[in-house]
Amino acid sequence: MIPTATPSRRTSLASAALVASALGAALSVVPPGIGPDAAVAASAPSVDPARDPQGPAAPQAGVTVMLDRHPFRWEKDTVLLAEPDGFVLRFAGQVKDATVHLGTDGPAPGGDARLLLEVDVDPVRAGRPGASSGPPRDPWPRLGAVFLLSEDLGPAVAEGAAGQAPRTAAEIELMRFVTGFGSPGRFVEDVTAFAPLFRGAVTIRTYISTYTEEPGWYATVRLRAVPGESGIRRPRFVRGLLTDLHVDAGRPDRLMEVVIPSGMETPRLRILSTGHASDGRGANEFVTAAHILRVDGIEVARWRPWAEGRPDLRAANLWAGRRRLGGRIVWSSDLDRAGWAPGTAVSGLVIPVPELTPGRHRVELVIDGIRPRDPGPDDGDHGYFAVSVTVLADERVSDE
Q1: 295-324 as b/e, with b when 16 or more CB fall inside 10 Å?
Q2: Which residues have CB under 8 Å from 260's CB, separation 6+?
C-alpha cells in the first residue's frame, strides 16, 4: 500500500500477492547487504548520474522552475488536508504550495508549444547533512502528485450518490507519480492539454506522502515549454471534476456536473486511478476493480486500472525487498499493481467523450469491487482507490 494516514497505518508496499493463493506473502524492504542480490544493490549508484541532486541547475530557456529542491517531511501534529471520511490525511510538511507568474500569454507566447511537467525527487540520506550516499531516511515508495489550485474551477462536484451538498473542486491533478524504493527518480508528464491554466499567477501544490519527521525527500518541479511541438492540440477548455484520494467501498460512486461551452471539439475525460490497501494486503493494491463511467446515465466506458511489473526499474528501486520464487529472485518493485509501479509516473487514461456536447451534463464514476472494511477496531483495514477526473477540450478551427 501507499501509506496515507498515521504510522499505525504505515504498512509496506512490499507486502504483495504473488499468486492468488498467497495474497498475504510479504516482500520486506531490506537494506542493501542483506539477501542474494546484495552485491547488485550495493554496487549500483545511489544517485542518478544524469543530474546533480545536490543543488539547482542553471536556468534554461523555456523552463520555469516552480519548486526548487524543497524538502518534504511529516509534521505529525499538523493535519493540513483531510478527506471527508477522515481517513486520508495530508500533513503539513508533506504538501508545498508555490506561486509563479507566467504572464498573460503563459510560458510560450503564441500558443504553439508542447508543455512538459518535470519532477525530480531525491531521498535524503541518513547521517550528516548533505550526504549523497548511505541509507535513505525513507526507503519506501511514496505517492506523489502535482496539482494546480484554483478558487473556482467552474463545475460543482457532488461527493457521492446520496445527494450530499456539492462543493467546488480546489485541485486539478496535473501529474501523479510513485517514488522508487528509497531511490532518486525523474518523472515527466505532457500537460499541453492543460495550457489554458498556465497563465498569469499560477499556484501549484506538490505532495509527497513521506512519514519521516526529518526531511525524507527533496523535490524539484519544472514546467518546460517546447515551441512548435503542440501538433494538432489547440487547448481551450479544462475543468476539474474530481480529486479524491480515498474512494472506498462505503461510497464507491461519484457524481459530477460540467457545463461545456460552444465552440469546443474533441471533448475527453482524463482519469487517474490507482488502487491501494490500508494494510498492504492484495486488494486493492495488487487486485484491481472495475471502473464504470456514465455520461447522462449512459455507460460510455468500463476498465480495470492495471500496471504490469517492471523488473527493468530495479535501478530505481534499490531498497526494494527480495525473495526467491520458483528459482528466481523477485523484487517487490517487479510486481503487477492496480494502476501504478514504484519509480514511475502514473499513466492517465484519456477517454474521448463526444457525448459532452455544449450544455450541462452529469458524469458518474462507479468503482465496483473495492475491498470492504474488515470488522474490528480502528475502522477496519480495507482497499481504496485514489481518483481524479478532468474534462479537456480543444478549440474548434476551420480548414484553411
Answers
A1: beeeebbeebbebebbeebbbbbbbbbbbe
A2: 237, 267, 356, 357, 358, 359, 361, 391, 393
Q: Could you tell me the three cell numbers for 174? A: 496535473
Q: Which of 191, 205, 206 is nearest to 108 (CA)?
A: 191
Q: Choose between 168 and 294: higher pLDDT.
A: 294
pLDDT digits (tens, 9 = 90+) for 222-267: 999 999 888 888 999 999 999 999 999 999 999 999 999 999 999 9
pLDDT digits (tens, 9 = 90+) for 74-98: 998 888 877 666 666 788 899 999 9
For the chain, the distance separating the N- and C-terminal CA atoms, rounded to the nearest angstrom, is 52
Give the CA dihedral 366, 372, 377, 381, nearest 10 degrees.
-90
Residue 20 dihedral angles phi and psi, to the nearest 5°? -60, -30
Q: How does residue 18 score in pLDDT terms, banded at 50, 70 and 90?
A: very low
Q: How many CA atoms lie within 13 A of 353 on its CB side?
A: 32
Cα Rg, the chain, nearest whole Å:
21
Starting at the edge strand that comes first in sequence, how are the strands of the sheet with 143-149 ordered? 95-101, 201-208, 143-149, 171-178, 344-345
Instruction: Give one DSSP letter per residue of 282-329, joined into a string.
Output: HHHHTB--EEEEEETTEEEEEE---B---GGGGGG-TT--EEEETTEE
Rounded Cα distance between 362 and 29, Å, is 44
Task: Tell me whether residue 44 is in a domain.
Answer: yes
* Tally of domains within the chain: 1
Answer whether residue 2 is part of any domain: no
C-alpha cell at 380: 477496519
CATH code, 17:
2.60.120.230
Whether the predicted model's global pTM rises above the 0.85 cut: no
Q: Kindly tell me if the per-residue pLDDT of 195 is higher than 80.
A: yes
400 inside domain: no
- In terms of residue numbers, what domain contains 323? 7-395
- 152 CB-contact burial (10 Å; exposed 0-12 / middle 13-18 / buried 19+): exposed
For 319-328, write each residue's pLDDT tens digit: 999 999 999 9
For residues 283, 25, 337 and 306, what is the CA-based torsion angle, rounded to 10 degrees?
-70
Contacts of 214 (CB under 8 A, 6+ apart): 73, 124, 137
CB 11 within 8 Å of CB 332: no
Decide: helix, strand or coil at residue 397: coil
